[in-house]
Design a protein that fits this description.
Alpha-Beta Plaits; Arc Repressor Mutant, subunit A
Length: 422
């Protein structure tokens, strides 16, 4: 069955009602509809010249075609419109939501019905038409108008959806190119038109979130949750590849500690792997946050996904990032500070784990609880570590703590290399 065959067979207005419909001042009616549409569906676009003219042209063509259908000059399947579809394209370009398009059709056709039905009642009274005949004419008028509205509005909505989808894909492609441009070390300032397309405030304070295992489609849902949790109005989503995505959230007044914690808490609640940058301002800050999340992810890769926290902040691993920029010097530092504790034996690894935990937890009891060991075992291990170092554990404590963190990273990285070689 063709689309034309699916359309209902419309009733025909009686001669007197058809003459009434043909006498309506279409120009005046079109202006009433335009005014109602602007007030009810497009209040923010009343001063937009191109938009208003396209709306006026669309309404004018619709009221003319509807009059022809009401008067029997045009069958509904033969209605061929141009301006309403052009107007739908303009709305898509201006990112007007489809709900506004639908509301404009409801409001506009209601205004048309009110005018034609008002005139029909006046005409019936003037010509002394029987009440039952007048009501039947009103029912016919209403049926034809609603059938016309459904026929045209559904086609226009479909046209709008196609245009909006095409523009969205095109816009997303252009935005990705602009983001790639911004992330280059030699990035030039974007033009005013590019800034409009980007639709993201580069002068704000930025936090980047790299989702290494979340594709762009799912990342959009994550982003919505993060915006809600942090109150960030502006955000940017950029696919890194088919399976990973980086998000940016902007705060015009900078990021408070509370906002940052809300971000991390929400990521933890979403149970995703995420690398989070420190806040940085401006275009240069945007590039720096991208560098930071890549550095965090490199630390995660070295530790191994199973051994690293699911949500890892740059502040958590900034020391590792700094020292691992020169792996050879990092190994030398570890060897000098840890001596025999840097050996790749199981015993040395257990002693390093216990010593690092004791620095973190502060007491033998807390360390034992964390490692699920007896307190005496912890004491014995720490005594052994002191013997191997040849000095008390409180001597050069800062250097020892740094060396233990770097040793853990080196051990994980070298283990990953061995696994890959195997």
């Amino acid at each position: 069955m063709t689309d034309a065959e699916k359309l209902p067979v419309l009733p025909v207005l009686p001669r007197w009602a058809g003459a009434m419909a043909d006498s309506v001042d279409l120009s005046a009616l079109a202006e009433v509809v335009v005014r109602c549409d602007l007030e009810a569906a497009f209040p923010d676009l009343q001063e937009h010249g191109e938009f208003v003219e396209r709306l006026r042209a669309s309404v004018a063509e619709n009221v003319q075609a509807l009059q022809d259908v009401l008067c029997g000059r045009l069958a509904l399947p033969d209605v061929r419109l141009v301006e309403p579809f052009a107007f739908a394209d303009v709305q898509a370009r201006l990112r007007v939501p489809q709900t506004s398009l639908q509301r404009s059709y409801r409001v506009g056709f209601a205004a048309m019905w009110q005018e034609w039905s008002r005139r029909l009642v006046l005409c019936a009274e003037a010509e002394d038409v029987a009440r039952t005949d007048a009501l039947e004419a009103l029912r016919t008028l209403t049926s034809v108008l609603l059938a016309y509205q459904d026929h045209v509005a559904s086609q226009v909505a479909e046209s709008f959806a196609r245009a909006d989808d095409a523009l969205s894909r095109s816009r997303a492609h252009v935005r990705s190119g602009l983001v790639r441009q911004l992330l280059r070390d030699d990035a030039a300032a974007l033009s005013p038109s590019d800034l409009v397309i980007l639709d993201y405030p580069l002068d704000a304070g930025h936090v980047a979130v790299l989702l290494p295992t979340v594709a762009a489609g799912a990342a959009a849902q994550v982003l919505q949750g993060l915006r809600t949790a942090t109150g960030a109005r502006d955000a940017l989503l950029h696919p890194v590849d088919l399976s990973s995505t980086v998000l940016w959230l902007a705060q015009s007044t900078g990021w408070s500690e509370r906002s940052r914690q809300c971000l991390v808490d929400r990521l933890i609640g979403l149970d995703v792997h995420a690398s989070v940058s420190d806040p940085r301002p401006g275009s240069a800050g945007l590039r720096m946050t991208w560098v930071q999340v890549q550095e965090v992810e490199a630390v995660r890769d070295a530790w191994g996904t199973a051994r690293s926290p699911r949500v890892l902040q740059h502040a958590d691993v900034s020391l590792e990032v700094l020292l691992m920029r020169d792996p050879e010097r990092a190994r030398e530092f570890v060897a000098v500070e840890l001596g025999p504790l840097a050996d790749s034996t199981e015993q040395a690894a257990r002693l390093r784990e216990t010593l690092e935990a004791s620095y973190r937890w502060g007491s033998h009891v807390a360390t034992a609880e964390h490692l699920h060991l007896h307190e005496h075992t912890v004491r014995n291990r720490l005594h052994k570590a002191s013997q191997l170092l040849g000095r008390p554990l409180h001597d050069r404590r800062t250097e020892l703590q740094v060396a233990l963190r770097i040793a853990r990273l080196l051990e994980a990285r070298e283990g990953s290399v061995r696994d890959g070689a195997g």
